[in-house]
Design a protein that fits this description.
The protein is of the alpha/beta class and 389 residues long. The protein folds into two domains: 330 residues, Rossmann fold; 36 residues, no CATH class. The protein has an eight-stranded mixed beta sheet with strand order 1-2-4-3-5-6-7-8, with helices on both faces. Helix 3 links the parallel strand 3 and strand 4. Helix 4 crosses helix 5. The N terminus and C terminus are likely disordered.
Length: 389
């Protein structure tokens, strides 16, 4: 599908003194810095949600594992692919996909992706990013760089297994930005799928101002977002560029598939084009790996896996770029046939900062899906054939 119109690039990337001067033009630097510190205190660490259930609830065999990532050990589930090459012959190595959740989510929420990818023949690994799920709480703020480091650690862990032939990464939201960052730094990553990913920390910080219903004048909002984003990541020694999916996409040379809900109220659709443009702009060789984009009508920030087309496209992309385990068309068909639905408690994590915004987005998404279903049924009845599933 075509990419949406590009959002106008931010007009400058100021050094700290220029940034300070820009903020001082509207409010005192001291007040702005205090705001940034308060913001970091409020949103820098996730509210951990309990991991509910496990892959066995969906008939999947799994192994509980720990993934080393720097000084952390991440809780995870390894879901092995099924099948063998015949009697008395061990199963041949298969491609594997590591799945990374978004902000304030956990690996229990990621099993949905593991279900359809497992149906398509892949090994799957679902992890809790540090500070999330069953991992201990963190003392310093988390952001895209930590999601990226943990995604890279998951890729290395998979690549070291003798039953894994190639490794792909799939991430949602901050996890989507994280897998792009991981792809740019970890050679073991052969393909990346990112869903609903924010393009960079400054833009998403400005968006959270709006979602928290902070009415900041436009001339102040951008420089304040720069300062706030910098304060958010500096404690761990990172820069704003370290937290940018756009910067990472320009460095990552492998196959990239970006998917985004058309009605995403948490991470606006324009972020999709910004990341894709950054990736394509850096790939000047005609033989460069593909950068593909998919806009999903009728969906917001979450639950894209409910769409059969998303499942089909994701599985066929990994089958093509990771060399199996089956032909891309077959993998896509198997994934599309595996029906996956959202959890019972849908409001959590990023996007829940404003309950009014989240509830409005959910209601609009539901209404659009119902309207589309009614239109399909009416069209089928007029044509004298049963509606499609």
């Amino acid at each position: 599908m075509p990419s949406p119109t590009l959002m106008t690039s931010l007009p400058f990337r100021p050094r700290p003194l220029a940034l300070a001067a820009g903020v001082v033009g509207a409010v005192s630097f001291g007040l702005a810095y205090r705001f940034a510190l308060q913001y970091r205190e409020k949103v820098g660490l996730p509210h951990r949600s309990p991991v509910e259930g496990n892959p066995a609830d969906f008939g999947l065999a799994f192994e509980s594992v720990e993934i080393p990532s720097g000084d952390a050990r991440l809780a995870g589930w390894f879901v092995p692919a099924e099948g063998s090459d015949g009697p008395d012959r061990p199963a041949r190595p298969r491609p594997a996909v590591a799945i990374v959740h978004g902000w304030e989510s956990n690996r229990g929420r990621s099993v949905a992706h593991a279900r359809y990818l497992h149906a398509a023949g892949f090994h799957c690994l679902v992890i809790d990013v540090r500070g999330h799920g069953d991992n201990p709480p963190e003392e310093m703020p988390l952001n895209v760089p930590e999601f990226g480091a943990d995604a890279a650690a998951a890729a290395r862990w998979l690549a070291a297994r003798p039953d894994v032939s190639a490794v792909g990464l799939l991430g949602h939201s901050l996890g989507g930005a994280g897998v792009i960052v991981a792809g740019a730094s970890e050679p073991a990553v052969r393909a990346v799928v990112a869903l609903s990913s924010p393009a960079d920390l400054v833009r998403i910080t400005r968006k959270t101002f709006e979602m928290a219903e902070r009415h900041i004048p436009r001339p102040v909002a951008t420089p304040l977002a720069y300062l706030t984003a910098a304060v958010l990541v500096v404690q761990r020694g990172h820069s704003i560029d370290d937290a940018s999916a756009c910067v990472a996409a320009a460095r990552y040379c492998g196959p990239l598939l970006l998917l985004h809900g058309e009605d995403d109220q948490g991470v606006p659709l324009a972020h999709l084009a910004l990341i894709a443009d950054a990736a394509r702009g850096a790939r000047t060789d005609p033989g460069s790996a593909p950068v593909e984009t998919v806009i999903v009508p009728g969906y917001g920030h979450r639950w894209l896996y409910e769409d059969a087309g998303v499942r089909r496209r994701t599985a066929s992309f990994f089958a093509k770029e990771l060399g199996g385990p089956v032909a891309p068309k077959k993998a896509g068909g198997l994934a599309a046939a595996c029906v996956v639905e959202r959890p019972e408690n849908p409001i959590y994590g990023f996007g829940a900062a404003s309950a009014a915004v989240a509830a409005e987005a959910e209601a609009r998404e539901k209404a659009r899906l119902e309207a589309r279903a009614r239109a399909t049924i009416e069209a089928s009845e007029e044509a004298g054939r049963p509606p499609l599933d």
